[in-house]
């Protein structure tokens, strides 16, 4: 996709945020926002992989009934879909999506992923013992979980870098300018 920079000094965050797509005329996401989006997709993919492993374990060892598995999937699958949809809105410059991803997945989601391992450590379980007892599925799950957490935390950082902040501000200004053009100066749009 070709890009053309708008009127700001080269290398300045505003010039990066105001890069427009020649094809659509809309603001193109800056590198940190594109990277954050890719990491949100990675986090969701890791979550799906972890869910597959958990279901396989429950089916394999008989620890979960069909109903328990169905309830777990009924909760997780909409969360995965919502995360992707909100990440798409974040990539298109919606600040509310950036905040939602940060609070819902960056804070609450990360906490839900690390509580169990932290609780085990607090109760005296060592990492060495966990690795000694781990099977292939446990190691795959742990590696996926580590990737998942790293992707979420890195995505949150990228979404708040100066260039990303400029991108979200520029998007807000563009929407305000478009609303003014639609309604005329001094008039509000009531829809």
TrEMBL record:
Name of this protein: Uncharacterized protein
Protein source organism: Streptomyces tanashiensis
Residue ranges crossing the lipid bilayer per the database entry: 27-49, 69-88, 95-115, 146-168
Region Disordered: start-end pairs: 1-21
Keywords recorded for this protein, A-Z: Membrane, Transmembrane, Transmembrane helix
Source taxonomy: Bacteria, Bacillati, Actinomycetota, Actinomycetes, Kitasatosporales
């Amino acid at each position: 996709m070709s890009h053309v920079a708008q009127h700001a000094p080269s290398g300045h965050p505003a010039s990066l945020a105001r890069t427009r797509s020649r094809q659509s005329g809309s603001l193109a996401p800056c590198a940190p926002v594109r990277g954050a989006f890719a990491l949100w997709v990675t986090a969701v993919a890791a979550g799906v992989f972890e869910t597959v492993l958990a279901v396989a374990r429950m089916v394999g060892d008989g620890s979960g009934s069909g109903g328990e598995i169905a309830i777990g999937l009924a909760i997780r699958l909409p969360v995965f879909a919502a995360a992707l949809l909100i990440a798409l809105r974040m990539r298109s410059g919606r600040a509310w999506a950036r905040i939602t991803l940060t609070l819902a997945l960056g804070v609450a989601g990360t906490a839900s992923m690390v509580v169990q391992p932290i609780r085990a450590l607090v109760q005296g379980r060592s990492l060495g013992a966990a690795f000694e007892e781990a099977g292939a599925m446990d190691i795959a799950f742990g590696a996926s979980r580590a990737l998942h957490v790293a992707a979420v935390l890195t995505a949150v950082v990228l979404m708040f870098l100066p260039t990303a902040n400029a991108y979200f501000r520029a998007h807000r200004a563009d929407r305000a300018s478009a609303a003014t053009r639609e309604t005329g100066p001094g008039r509000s749009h009531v829809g």
